[in-house]
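If you are new to this repository, start here. Below is one unmodified record pulled from the training split, so you can see the exact layout before writing a loader.
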Amino acid sequence: MATIFCDTDSELYYTHANKYGLEVIRMPYNLDGEEKLADLGETFDPKQFFDSMRAGAKASTAGLNEEVYYDIFKPFFEKGEDILYIAFSSKMSKTFDYLDIAINRLTTEYPNVKYRRFDTLNICLGTGILVYLGAKYCREHGDDIDATYDYLESIRDRAGIYFSVEDMKYLARGGRIAPAKAKIGNLMNIKPVLTVIDGKLDVCKKCNGISKAVDYMLDTFEQLYDPSIDAPVIILDADNPARADEMERRVRANHPDAEIWRNAIGPVVGAHAGPGTLGIIYMTKAR
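And here is the target side for that same chain:
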């Protein structure tokens, strides 16, 4: 059986990872000086985490070094099975530079092992939905990682992700926007709707208030959603259940047969987006 890896930046809930026998790379985060590893929701308490951020706790993230990656992958190279890693966007972290060094060492030591890394060019459940579909495809097609890679390439650009943050200061802390713009935006009650384009975050709309941001995200969903793809619609929030409930009701009203997942935003993505963030992820029509 081929080994399929994902990382916790995918935000795919641990029960889905377990269902398809995925190996999970746990990415680190830090909350007020205490370093932990994300675990796809298995032990993470989102309310406690985001309440801590609201109270002033500093949250940050980090990558992994070469030796950690080497130690993670070596046992699977030793087994000699094919390896497919479905990863978050390489354009969002330098951690993949260290991964590549570790993999080069391992492929030299174990030249007969087939290893492939698929770059989703996405983040959060924009990556997670591709991990889910890729793992499902791989298990249903004889664990052929080359065919799975090709399948993922054919649908990569159809993973739609749209989210809006409650407070732009967290984006500023992570270097996503300038601090001055964050302050002005907060004063004016601007709620940016962000997406991922070519592996990087991009602002697609600036809305006056969260209600209009939710309207924009759901209007965009109605325009782009492709129900013919057997994939869930994922509504996620960073301890903002009332707004997420509203989004779910509105999606169900127009798409009663859709499979809808409700996910809490995890600590790695949450450290950059902040409490109150809302998002929707789904597979889009071909563009």
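Two things worth knowing about this chain: The chain has two domains: 3-45+64-156, 158-283. Residues 158-283 form a domain with the Hypothetical Protein Tm841; Chain: A;domain 3 fold (CATH 3.30.1180.10).
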